[in-house]
Amino acid sequence: xxxxTEKYKMKMNFFRLNPSSKLVLLGAAMAYFPFLSLINxxxxxxxxxxxxxxxxxxxxxxxxxxxISAADDSREVSFYLSSKPIGDSQLTGLQSIPNIxxxxxxxxxxxxxxxxxxxxxPLKKLHLERTKIGDQGVKHLKGATQLTYLNLYGTQxxxxxxxxxxALPELEKLYVWKSKVTEAGMAALQKSRPDLMIIGELKLKPxxxxxxxxxxxxxxxxxxxxxxxxxxxxxxxxxxxxxxxxxxxxxxxxx
Length: 255
Prior knowledge:
Layout: H1 2-16, H2 19-39, H3 47-60, E1 64-67, E2 75-78, E3 100-104, E4 125-127, H4 135-139, E5 149-151, H5 159-162, E6 173-175, H6 183-192, E7 197-199
Parallel strand pairs: 2-3, 3-4, 4-5, 5-6, 6-7
Antiparallel strand pairs: 1-2
């Protein structure tokens, strides 16, 4: 009740002031509210309205904002194959879209300075292939501690830029094909991060076609000696039987 009474007294005191004093107080209040908006740009604005406005800004540029799964609120923002040029100014509203973990900026016209606007996003996957991003741009990713995938294919990143990636604890896969990164730089990063998969340029060795070999003449196989058949036994010759002595006939007696 005391608070209500004091508030009522202040209201009554305001109405008792002369017109010039009222104008002074109103002027001071009107000057104070813009000052609050400088301290907090979201002052007096609905967060949902800011999110809706930021999503509309992405879609008006030909980009897409999609939920990664129905199970959670994680989102993917993609400017890949956008129908309009995408530069740094199109990234200004991303901070108002919560839970962006995948961001595809492949083939856009973003600069190193534009990547500074990604600070604070919980990114896990970032596509920067075929952009003009260099070492200074990669430097702005040092705070992306949840990043697991980074594609720097066709960028201006050099060995010096790889030094900024050593501090990313969750990084699992890195593409540096057709960038300014050398084999020595890849080897140095691999030595400090043996768990990191680094995909560089695939160098194919020329294959020299060998002349077809002539078929070797087959040597005649040596004939195996035939197994000798057992000789048939000849029938033994029968010995002539001994003739028995003929019995002598008795001579006839003379008369």
